[in-house]
Amino acid sequence: MNAATDPPDERSPVNAATDPPDERAAVNDPGLHDPPAGLAAVDGPRRARLPRWSRPGPRPLEPEPGGRLRLSVDATAVPARPVGAGQYTLNLVRALDAREDVVLTVLCRHGDDGRWAMLAPSATLLAAAPQPRPVRLAWEQAALPLVLRRHPVDVHHGPHYTMPELTQVPRVVTVHDLTFFDHPEWHERTKVAVFRRAIRIAARRAAAIVCVSEHTAERLRDRVPPSCPVHVIHHGVDHERFRPDPPGGVAHDEAVLGRYGIRRPFVAFVGTIEPRKAVDQLVRAFDRMAGAHADLRLVLAGTPGWGAQSVDAAIAGARHADRIVRTGYVPDDAVPALFRRAAAVAYPSAEEGFGMPALEALACGAPLVTTRGSVMEDLVGDTALLVPFGDIRALSGALDMLARGDAGLADRRARGHAVATRHTWEACADAHVAVYRSVQRMSGDPDPSDR
Fold first, then answer.
1. Exposure string over 9-33, b if 16+ CB within 10 A, otherwise e
2. Residue pLDDT, tens place only, 346-389
3. Which CATH number fits the domain 249-421, given the four candidates 3.40.50.2000, 3.40.50.360, 3.10.20.30, 1.10.443.10?
4. Using CA atoms, how far apart are residues 5 and 235, in angstroms rounded to an integer?
């Protein structure tokens, strides 16, 4: 799920002229509110753009009143249509912005500040990064240290593998998985080189690393042993959206499905169409059992990513290709309806850092089939049907079992929902703030609560 431009947001934009003053939102920098030539302020002090030629000097870091933590989060890698790591960054930023003990600065790309103003209305937004990935990665190394000198913080968080190397600010980096080392064939070659190096740099120079699962932490220690503490913090679930019964009930969900031409019953897959997700195997498994379920459809909801040709080939060779629906990208507000009304949700991925769609499906009360021996099994346990990766016959049998409604289905759904309710973005943010505080103490900067 990637794109270049966000659709308009129906929520009212932040209005710096009419909103009450917010000391967390203002960039306290003389001259920024009346910027010199080349330094543009967008919608008042909430969003500032720094020109590439800017060479800001250092400012003294004065204690923040109330002992609040000054934190910057690099959101420049989040695409307009985020999944996986992008959703993690979105939800973490939203939860951090709601806290009274954090003064948040969000770094984003030029032209991307509108959605972050919606998500984090109290944060300072610096829309300084260029759009193209290669230039953006260069900006992170060459320009971001200068930005952090002008807008000093206690801790900087790189939530997507990378960090600025030449800064004295303590850095926390999130590592989502080690597939760039373990399975380079699942990625574009250029990404493999870039992110292998980024992970190695983080392992040597970060003050702390966050891993999204125990499996990722173990792989990191095996492949690139870090010289800093490693903290395992699970993702959360947005329980306002991912719930068994939406405010509008069945009629609401049917209307959402109707926009995509989806009729029940159906098997749902939600995620980027890429090699590791094994969507081609799901197509073949569905084709094996579809003859016994005349009305059943397979819905593939997700943007085609790198290496999606195998899925095209599997559909072209399927006997029941006319019952396979490809929706392309599905907006966030439509995903819960897919999960709630599915006869089965299939997530047969070979490997994930966390496997967020599996947990979100359980939060909606959906019957789930996923991969045995994966991080998804660690996450959901026996609340889902588990099949070995690559076993198309077993996957087909599990789909058939769920489509028929086996005797244990109701019990698994209830227990799965209970598992999902234990994961919240507020708890995820709590754990991250604990890491930020520990890094701040290790850096020699006293805990603001002791000031």
1. eeeeebebeeeeeeebbebeeeebe
2. 999 999 999 999 999 999 999 999 999 999 999 999 999 999 99
3. 3.40.50.2000
4. 26
